[in-house]
Amino acid sequence: MSKERLKQFLAEVQACWPAVLGTMAEVRKRCIRPRCAACAEGRHHPAVLFTFMDQGRRRCLYVPQGFVATLRQALKNGRRLEQRLRQMGADLIRDFRRGRDQGKP
Questions:
Q1: 30 Cβ partners below 8 Å, 6+ apart?
Q2: Which helix or strand (DSSP H or E) is residue 64 part of?
């Protein structure tokens, strides 16, 4: 990979920050209050969970409401960055073949 292409990639990564891989879902959960009217009626309470893989295991974390928009953008950035990395694999092989065909090691 040329230095210019590396600089371009690093600039793309910086523009995609923060970036994460995982999923975010809104769920409804029971609370710990024994006489909660919402839980008694079956409505439960909304909560947002972030699910991700950690050492081959699925993990979930509660997401505070004030952080949902930031996490949503980080997930979008993560997908963009993942797509770019997949594209770079093919580009790397094409560059290698071009160099090989031109007599470069």
A1: 36, 39, 44, 45
A2: none
Report, as an integer, the average pLDDT of 29-40.
87
pLDDT band of 20, cuts 50, 70, 90: very high
Strand (E) or helix (H) holding 4: helix 3-15
Asked if pLDDT for residue 101 goes beyond 90, the answer is no
In angstroms, rounded to a whole number, what is the distance separating the alpha carbons of residues 94 and 105?
14
The answer to whether 19 and 78 have CB atoms below 8 angstroms apart is: yes
CA distance 28 to 31: 10
In this structure, what is the dihedral angle of CA atoms 22, 23, 29, 33, given to the nearest 10 degrees? 40
List C-alpha distances in Å: 51 to 21, 24, 46, 63, 76: 9, 6, 16, 10, 15
User: pLDDT digit string (tens) for 40-94?
Assistant: 888 888 999 999 999 999 999 999 999 999 999 999 999 999 998 888 888 888 8
